[in-house]
Structures are given as C-alpha cells and as structure tokens.
C-alpha cells in the first residue's frame, strides 16, 4: 500500500520529483489608491469640522445681518463649500472602500498632519505678528503646494511662486479695495 503512494524513482526524472514551492505575489509596501483605509475617517473629520464652522458662520451672520456685500456672507459661502466637498470626499471614500474590499491599504497621515500644522501656524502668524496677510498667505500657499506636490521642487518653484504671490496679492486687493474688508497689511506698504 505504501508503494502505490510513493513515486517510483526510476519512473520519474529527478527534476520532476523536486517540489517547487508556490510563491504568492507580494503585497507588502503597496497601497491601494482606490481604497485608503483612513479616507472615510478623514472625510468624516472634515465634514464634522466643516459643519461646526458653517454653524458658527451662520450664527454670526444672523447676529450681525447677512448682506450681499457684507463681511458675513463670505464665511457662510466658504464653509458651505467646505461641507459640500467634505461630503463628496466622504461618500467617494466609502464607495471606493466598498468596491475594493479586501485590498490591503495603508494610510498616509504625513501630508494631512503637516497641512494642519501649516494652517495652525498660518493662523497664529496672521493674528499675532506684524507679517501681514500678503506675506503670510504667500508662504502658506507655497508650503501647501510643496506638501501636496509630487513633482521635484525645481520643476514647479516658479509656478508655485507666481501662484502664491498672485493669489495672496489678488485676494488682498479685492477684499480691501473692492469689498472694504480690512486685512492686516503687515510690513508691506500696501
């Protein structure tokens, strides 16, 4: 009985008698762009913060009166857009996670954490220093662009500088000259 189960060494060539182990494809170090595991949590956090800020903006607008040209309309519009984008992001992350069930994924927390830190530093510099809106916003836009970019800095530095300076200066001039909203001028003679 044992002879029937063991192969005859004379009948099979030596190469065929060696067992070749099967190797499963490696998934270590790869991420699934379709379904990051932390994306729904980030989307939920963004939505929660957006709803809280929208609630505060609406409450401030009701207290002081919302007018088309007044300063209370902009925070309501911006936070309303934030809520819509956060809701879209959350729904998209949940949908992608459901379609890619079982795919291993890792969460890249570095960029969101650094962006949050940059935003906090930007707010502190804007409120408590004499740097001013234009310079602090230009630096914040440069830092944000660098954190979000995957291209080498040499390839995008000119574009990022022009965008940062143009955006911060343009917003400053529109708000101060056209809308009459005071933004801190800082060290620049604007």
TrEMBL record:
Annotated region described as Disordered, given as residue ranges: 1-36
Keywords in alphabetical order: Membrane, Transmembrane, Transmembrane helix
Top-level division of the source organism's lineage: Bacteria
Pfam families, alphabetized: TctB
Identification of the protein by name: Tripartite tricarboxylate transporter TctB family protein
Chain ranges of the DUF1468 domain: 42-184
Zinc found in the keyword field: no
Compositional bias ranges of the Low complexity kind: 23-36
TM helices/strands, residue ranges: 41-60, 72-91, 103-124, 130-149, 161-187
Keyword Transferase: no
């Amino acid at each position: 009985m044992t002879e029937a189960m063991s192969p005859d060494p004379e009948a099979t060539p030596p190469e065929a008698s060696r067992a070749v182990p099967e190797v499963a494809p490696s998934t270590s170090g790869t991420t699934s762009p379709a379904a990051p595991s932390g994306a729904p949590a980030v989307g939920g956090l963004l939505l929660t913060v957006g709803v809280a800020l929208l609630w505060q903006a609406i409450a401030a607008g009701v207290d002081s009166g919302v007018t088309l040209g007044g300063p209370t309309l902009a925070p309501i519009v911006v936070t309303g857009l934030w809520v819509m984008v956060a809701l879209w992001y959350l729904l998209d992350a949940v949908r992608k996670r459901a379609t890619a069930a079982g795919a291993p994924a890792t969460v890249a927390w570095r960029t969101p954490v650094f962006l949050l830190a940059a935003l906090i530093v930007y707010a502190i510099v804007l409120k408590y220093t004499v740097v001013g809106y234009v310079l602090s916003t230009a630096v914040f836009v440069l830092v944000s662009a660098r954190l979000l970019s995957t291209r080498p800095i040499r390839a995008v530095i000119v574009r990022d500088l022009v965008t940062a300076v143009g955006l911060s200066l343009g917003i400053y001039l529109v708000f101060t000259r056209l809308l009459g909203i005071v933004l801190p001028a800082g060290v620049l003679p604007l």
